[in-house]
C-alpha cells in the first residue's frame, strides 16, 4: 500500500508541474497586451473561467481529505488567474472592463457561491466530494473550451 501512495504522490507532483505550465501559458498573450498597451482583440473569458475552475478545485480540495497537492496547485492557479485579470483590467477599454466585471460577478461570485450553498444545503455530507468533483470536471472542460470562443469571435 505504501508504494501506491508514493506513486500517487509522484503522479500528483507531475500533474502540479504540468498545471503550473498550463497556468503560465498565457504569458505571451499578456506580453502582447503590455507591449500594445491595449487588451483589444483579447477577451477576459478564458481567465474568468480559469479562475472559477481553480476556485472550484480549491473548494474540492478543502472538502477532500489528504488533498494538499490539489489545494496547493489551485491556490497558485487562483493567484495567477487573478493576476491575469488585474493585468487585463489595466489595459482594457471601459466596455471590456464592464464585460469582464459582469463575467466575474456572475461566474466567480454568484455561480461559485451557488455551488458552495447547494453543496452544504442540499447535498449530504457523504456525497459532497463526488458532487463537487463532477462539477469541477465540467468546469475543467470549460477552461479548455473557453479559448475556442476567442477563435469563433475572430472569424
Automatic annotation (TrEMBL):
Membrane association type: Multi-pass membrane protein
Pfam name, any one: MtN3_slv
Any one GO molecular function term: sugar transmembrane transporter activity
UniProt keywords, alphabetically: Membrane, Repeat, Sugar transport, Transmembrane, Transmembrane helix, Transport
Annotated TM spans: 6-25, 46-63, 69-92, 104-123, 129-150
InterPro entries the record matches: SWEET, SWEET_rpt
Subcellular localization, as worded in the UniProt entry: Endomembrane system
Gene3D superfamilies: 1.20.1280.290
Gene Ontology CC: endomembrane system; membrane
Family affiliation: Belongs to the SWEET sugar transporter family.
PANTHER family reported in the protein's UniProt record: BIDIRECTIONAL SUGAR TRANSPORTER SWEET9 (PTHR10791:SF134), RAG1-ACTIVATING PROTEIN 1 (PTHR10791)
Protein's recorded name: Bidirectional sugar transporter SWEET
Organism: Prunus armeniaca
Lineage: Eukaryota, Viridiplantae, Streptophyta, Embryophyta, Tracheophyta
Amino acid at each position: 500500500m505504501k508504494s501506491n501512495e508514493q506513486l500517487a504522490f509522484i503522479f500528483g507532483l507531475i500533474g502540479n508541474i504540468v498545471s503550473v505550465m498550463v497556468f503560465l501559458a498565457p504569458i505571451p498573450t499578456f506580453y502582447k497586451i503590455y507591449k500594445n498597451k491595449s487588451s483589444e482583440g483579447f477577451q477576459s473569458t478564458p481567465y474568468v473561467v480559469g479562475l472559477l475552475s481553480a476556485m472550484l478545485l480549491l473548494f474540492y480540495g478543502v472538502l477532500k481529505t489528504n488533498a494538499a497537492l490539489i489545494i496547493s496547485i489551485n491556490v497558485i492557479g487562483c493567484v495567477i488567474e487573478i493576476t491575469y485579470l488585474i493585468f487585463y483590467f489595466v489595459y482594457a477599454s471601459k466596455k471590456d472592463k464592464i464585460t469582464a466585471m459582469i463575467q466575474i460577478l456572475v461566474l466567480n461570485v454568484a455561480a461559485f457561491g451557488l455551488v458552495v450553498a447547494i453543496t452544504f444545503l442540499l447535498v449530504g455530507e457523504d456525497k459532497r466530494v463526488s458532487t463537487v468533483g463532477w462539477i469541477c470536471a465540467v468546469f475543467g472542460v470549460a477552461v479548455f473550451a473557453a479559448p475556442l470562443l476567442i477563435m469563433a469571435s475572430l472569424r
